[in-house]
Amino acid sequence: MYARCDALEDARQTFDEMCGSGVCDVVSWNSIVSAYGQSGKARKALELFYRMADEFLVRPDVVSLVNVLPACASLGALLQGKQAHGFAARSGLGG
Known about the structure:
The protein is mainly α. It is built from five helices and no strands. α2 (about 25-40) runs antiparallel to α3 (about 40-55), α2 runs parallel beside α4 and α4 packs antiparallel against α5 (about 80-90).
């Protein structure tokens, strides 16, 4: 909601507070990754995607991939895009 109102800092603060309270699931991660991606901050979106999966052990879902692939494309991050595609294929998220 905050991100759609051009209040990315407020969105991030809310996200950080939620995570600090232990209420950080794939939906909240997808929301903040999407917010950064839609705000033209693709590098930060990609960084958060990797933190979600690697550091916080939240399993990405199909929405996660929908959010991260455009970030990969806008950065020209072919390797990361291929990794996301491979994850989708291995996880059965490709349909």
